[in-house]
Amino acid sequence: MKLSHRITHLTPSGSDGWEVFYRARAMKAAGENVLELTIGEHDIRTHASILAAMNESAKGGHTGYASVPGTPELRKAVADRIQSRTGVATVPENILITPGGQAALFAAHNAVCDEGDTALYIDPYYATYPGTIRGVGAIPKAIPAFPENGFQPRADDIARHAQGATSLLINTPNNPTGAVYSKATLSAIADTCKTHDLWLISDEVYDTQLWDGTHISPRALPDMANRTLVIGSMSKSHAMTGSRVGWVCGPQDAIEHLVNLATHTTYGVPGYIQDAAHFALGQGTPLEDEIAAPFARRRQITEALLATQNIVKASPTQGAMYAMLDIRATGLSGLDFANDLLDAHGIATMPGESFGQAAAGHIRVAMTIADEDYAAALKTLLGFANDKAA
């Protein structure tokens, strides 16, 4: 039987660029000692108090169908959080609760893209972006953001690709690069969206992991609230990756249609998980700061170790839990460097090429293991790069 073109061409090459990660996992499963600096998974688990709230809700009976748009309490908590952080008036009717940020990305593109529309995104990109766009029947088109510009997308490059497009997807603080888009960058993006009548989809799941600069939600820029869909999630801010709870924030009419989409797809998020998320948001910034603190420390470790040598260079690590390292001085591609490092030292990293072509010759390091182990792994990586460059 024939499967649909849409499902079989989510990743047309048959690869999602993560071969090094899969190989490292296979080695680990076979009993080999592998240090994983690959995916954005916290090395601490969900806070015990959040799990207690989840357990209390489940035991209390909130295990049946929950309200599809999200519980009133959680929608209000998310709306209040967004309004407090951005200054933009936000009400529960601006919020749809989703099964994680990925479901929110899929829903947002469904809301604004018809079959055959062109949907723009920035390269380097989170690995699911082009497949998400293909999944709604749109045509993904990458706009490169170059290391020489700190991986900030340039206004001229965006404008050159915007003609005839329907939407633009951005991510700041950025995975994989760690860049935080400046006000000038975001203002240029906003101007382009207004000039070319684009929807802006803003992935802001790393908004609590900010080390340098200021996070600006483009929804807060002049005349942008009516054309911006913001993606949020509890995964990174509260170490709730497995709980699968996120949201879309946007104009009320768009959210009404997205509620209808959710009714026909996910049918909402379990109530006890929503109650746990509501509890977690109620703990305010102290808990968010506690979750972010290990990555702030490891960013300092990264900068200190990089300063001891001159082979590997780093793009500004302004936010998120990653460092994008330039290893072009070794003469290797990111893919070859990552494979060789894994074979030689059992350290798994992500090739820059896994996230598009603009980060070719780079590797992404996830700062997601204990400080001492992270420092040791990074020292080994830097020594390996020095040997390759000799």
From TrEMBL:
PROSITE patterns, sorted: AA_TRANSFER_CLASS_1 (PS00105)
Top-level taxon of origin: Bacteria
Necessary cofactors: pyridoxal 5'-phosphate
MF (Gene Ontology): transaminase activity
EC code: 2.6.1.-
Swiss-Prot/TrEMBL catalytic activity: L-aspartate + 2-oxoglutarate = oxaloacetate + L-glutamate
CDD domains with a match to the protein in the record: AAT_like
A Pfam cross-reference name: Aminotran_1_2
Top-rank EC class of the record's enzyme: transferase
InterPro entries in the record: Aminotransferase_I/II_large, AspAT/PAT-like, NHTrfase_class1_PyrdxlP-BS, PyrdxlP-dep_Trfase, PyrdxlP-dep_Trfase_major
The keyword Flavoprotein appears for this protein: no
Keywords from the named record: Aminotransferase, Pyridoxal phosphate, Transferase
Keyword Phosphoprotein recorded: no
Span of domain Aminotransferase class I/classII large: 33-379
Family, per entry: Belongs to the class-I pyridoxal-phosphate-dependent aminotransferase family.
Name of the protein in its database record: Aminotransferase
